[in-house]
Every structure is written in structure tokens, then in C-alpha cells.
Amino acid sequence: MSANKPLGVGIIGTGVISQTYLENLTSFPDIAVVAVGDLIAERAQAKAEEFGIPSWGTADDVLANPDVELVVNLTIPAVHVEVSRAAVAAGKHVWTEKPIGLDRESTRELLAAAGQAGVRIGSAPDTLLGPGFQTAKRAVLDGVIGTPRFVQTIFQTQGPDAWHPEPAFLFANGAGPLLDMGPYYFSALVSLLGPVDAVTARGSRPQLERTIRSGPRAGETFPVEVPSTVQVLSSFAGGQHGTHLLSFDSALERAGVVEIHGSEGTLVLPDPNMFSGRIAYVKPLGSISDADRDGQQWIEIEEQGPATGRGIGVLDMARAISEGRPHIATGELGYHVLDVMLSAQESVADGRTRTIESTVAPVPLLPEGFDPFAATLV
């Protein structure tokens, strides 16, 4: 990559999620989206025309384009590793949607191949680069709640069959609430507290079949292949522990709950599936009465940094490559989170605690003054 021009990006997969990626990436001066590809070339053509992208076609067309320096892999999870490996073989850096892969062996091989080729792997989610999480992480590092002791996270919903017109893939192997939503929560926690040492999990599949409730296929049924409710107990290398609920079986819709409990207070973080949100903390009470519990004062923290969205991880990679520094949402982080989730899945199956063999280096903050809308590579 030349230090005096934007990073050339090609996108493979122009389904629903590509819209928000394209809206954001085409707004960053340090990124030039030069090609889009899809199994259905006409769909790629439509996106190219909508966003003024000069080249479109199939995945092979994107990989063969000499102006593409980094591939954004927005394909379905089942082929994430396959498409990423093809990009690495073509000498391209890769940003992949979550999860980075569906099994340990092929994902390790992908990271090894990238290392040998001298290219980088980045992995969603990049919500942890948003101003909400970055502000909250700085507050923890500044000691606002003292030493973190334990964490709680909650994601519970009736399930995507209530609103998604094609929900079956979200209940198939490689998905469910654990692998579909878990990357947001575990990526944020690992970024904040460091690697996970061990997990124990329990899960259930109360319905073996579910019904599509919206869209043209409403009334059709499909099989549920994975647990639709999972509860995880985690132990972190830093000594903290956590409880995590991920469910598609709850009548009570409640998502985005992330609480960090420390020696000097409790902090609530934004929904890890979002880039912004409420950040606030409470301090311990000196003495407690029932009235104190009801009136405990929340101290709000103002979010710092410009609004961002999906694609900020690609931008961080572009600048990190130019500056010779590590990017933040690395393939190694994606692999460790995958290892944690697969270990939880295995614990659900046999009831045994799993030691996590992988680890990850401390995840840095974005550089001070990081402005997505500044032109730093031109």
C-alpha cells in the first residue's frame, strides 16, 4: 500500500449487511472501494451503480483486481474461511464478518497462511472501536470503578423467527444465539479484561422446530439445530469471572446488558452490538437502607469521539498498515473469541468445564484523536 493514497478495498458478498458497510466505507477519505463481487453478479452490479464503484462481478473478479489491497468478506459464515483463504492466496489483506470461522483447525490455518503471506486478518465485530465502547474502556482504565471484579451480560429475545423473513440459518449449526450474538459480547469483554481462561456452559433447545412469522414465507416451519438458550460462566486470566445469558427463547425482550462490577463502583456499557450508547456508573454506598437502594445515583459519562458504524475496523486496518502499528480487531482476537464460544458449545454438550487453550495480546485503544473522516493517507 502506498502511504500517499487511500487503501483500495474490494467487497465480496453484497447481501443486506453490505449496505451499511458501503455507506460507511465510501464516507471515509482513507478508503477507496474499487470493486464489489457476489455469487449473483447482477446484485454486485446494482451496488456498484448505487455507490459509484468502478468494478463489479464475481468473487474471482474482486480477487483478480490489482487495485484491491484489502478484501472485505461479507459472505455467509459457512464460507468465511474459504473466501478469506482465497484472498490471502491472492496477496490481499482481509477483513471478515463474524465469526472469523466455524472451527478451530481451519481458522488457525487461515491465520498461519496470512502470516506466511505477510498480510493481515481483521475480524468483526468492530463495534468495540466505536465511541461508546472506547469511552467506557478509557473510564475503566482510568480507575472510575477501581479494579474490575466480575461482569454480567444479557441478550434475550423471542428470537429472529419473529421478524426475519429467512431466519432458518440463525438456528443452524454455526449460529444460534451463542455464535450469532456471542461475538459482540465476548469481543468487548476480552478487549476490556483480557483473555478467557475457562468456561462452563448449559444450554437448551425447547423447540425442535420453529415457524417463520413474517415475510412471504410466514407460516413455514424449519428445524432448530443448536441450543436456542445458552448460559455461560467464564473465568478470565486476570482473575475476573462472568455470567452470560444468550437466548432466543425469552418473552422479555432485553439486549445489550453489559455490567462491569469493580472494587469502587459498577459501570454499565453500551450495547456491544451498537457503536454508541449510555455509559454510566454508581459508587458504593457507605451504609445501606431500603431508600438508598431505590435512590442510588448514576453518574453519566459523556461519549467521546465521532459517530461511526460498521467498517471502522477496515479503516483502522488501513491506517495501521500505513503507520506500521497493530490494528485493533485482529484475527487473533477473532480466533480467541471463537475458541471461547466453541468451548462453551462443547460444555453444553457434555456438561464439563473447558480450559481455553488460545490467548490474545492486550487489545489497544484507538489512537487519541482518531477521526474517521480525516484524510490521513492522501
Automatic annotation (TrEMBL):
Assigned keywords, A-Z: NAD, Oxidoreductase
Stretch forming the signal peptide: none
Sections of the chain in a coiled coil: none
Location of the Gfo/Idh/MocA-like oxidoreductase N-terminal domain: 8-121
InterPro entries, per database record: Gfo/Idh/MocA-like_OxRdtase_N, Gfo/Idh/MocA_oxidrdct_glycsds, GFO_IDH_MocA-like_dom, NAD(P)-bd_dom_sf
UniProt keyword annotation of Coiled coil present: no
Pfam families assigned to the protein according to its UniProt record, in alphabetical order: GFO_IDH_MocA, GFO_IDH_MocA_C3
Keyword NAD listed: yes
Domain GFO/IDH/MocA-like oxidoreductase: 133-267
GO molecular function: nucleotide binding; oxidoreductase activity
UniProt-listed PANTHER family: BCDNA.GH03377
The protein's name: Putative dehydrogenase
